[in-house]
From TrEMBL:
Transmembrane segments: none annotated. Residues 68-215, 236-365 form the GAF domain. It holds the Pfam family PAS_4. It comes from the Bacteria. This is Diguanylate cyclase.
Amino acid sequence: MPDTEDLAALTVAELVAHVRELRSANAQLRRQLHPAGPPLAAHALAEELIRQTSLLARLGIEFRDDLEPLALAQQALQSVTINLPADEATVVLLGADQQPAHALTAALGAPRLLPPDRAAELITQGSAGWALRHGSSVVLLDLANDIRRFQLRELQAGGSLIATPIRQSTATIGVLIIYRLATHAFSSSDLILIESVAAQLGVAIGAARLHQQHRLRQQHILALLNFGQTFTASHTLGDVAAQCHTIATETFAARWGLLFVRPSPQSQPAWIAPANLALEAPVAAAGGAAQLTADSQSVVTMALTDDLTCIALPLIHDGASIGGLALGYAGPQATPSGLDWNLLELFARQTATVCATLQLLARLREQTQLLEELIAERTNQLQRSRDLLRIVFDSLPEGVALLDESERLAAANTVFANQIVGRHPRELVGKTYAHLLRMIERAAPTSIELLPDPRAGRQRLRIRQMLPDGARSYVIERMDIPASHGQPASRLEFWRREP
């Protein structure tokens, strides 16, 4: 090969030969790196990994659209049967009691529900149950032989099967079963993909259940907040007791809920019978727990029988214990599982507020009734005293007139009204003194004369009328009444007829 250090010294022929030599070496390298024939196994593996990643990404996106565990299981089965070499796929989801809550199976079509007894059989006697109990995947490459060997009960009699658990955090909530008609049809990459699908399904179902729990908790909180706003003055403690029992059974899954309230601050809590509700509960035994929680102002848990537990919460209002709330649960455990103590405390606070409000309204009604009775009694006494004063006024031989501080007639006896003015007393009350004098002057010519009076603080007048039947005169004695006890000053006049 010519020296390539100094290309400028080469001729054209030498450069062309050098280029041909480089092209030949390059072609030889290409043939060594990419031999003719089918693709390398690495290419196939890369394509399989890309397909699996695409499937998992698509499942992750689809799982975001639904927040119902059953809908998520349907989506997973449809995606698995379409995108995987699977002839049939089954999902069994467990409930809180570790029994099948939902069971779906799909084979060349839309998922369908699996009968409950068949789902229970898979869990108790099939490979799905083994996967749930041990928390790991089960791979049966020759189902016919493996069923006989391990005495399993499966939906199919032959082929290949993978059962992998569906986990939520540290708990196993279900199992995913993938089936193929052929034997030895699954590889290690298939197992990894199926376990990845089950893991994504577990995360999605966990998020959906958490969303349902939060939504249900919000509903319970709103119901408890509305509990304190639904009661009015027309309701009774019996209505509150009935509502407490309903909330205890529906919201907190208790067998019964009993309300105990102190009639007075120093008395023992008494059971409040629910209104319009027949209730069978150990009231006496629960009353002991209510007494303890009211005295200690703390939560009390008591086993009433071998299969009945009572949880009693104090009803505290303004720092004082006004009673207790007792809830009964089946089972000997000290604390029922899944109990939301924050909601229970909110329930007790709302109940205490409602009971205290109704007790306050009851006391206000009692005080109002006593006040009304006292007012009626005082009114009758005043009326009787006024009647006696009226009798005394009307029995006097002279006219009597009582004027207020504005010189208006406040009261007059019949002598003054009928004989002097000539009107009914009701027609004169409220008239000014000047108006009364004008009424007298219109009846007949009238003259007024001021008379001396040796007594201090009094005035004497004489009024003379010229009537058709003769002259008639009155001596008027005025007596000022000073203001006292919040009453304004007034004036009392006595009209005595002269002979």
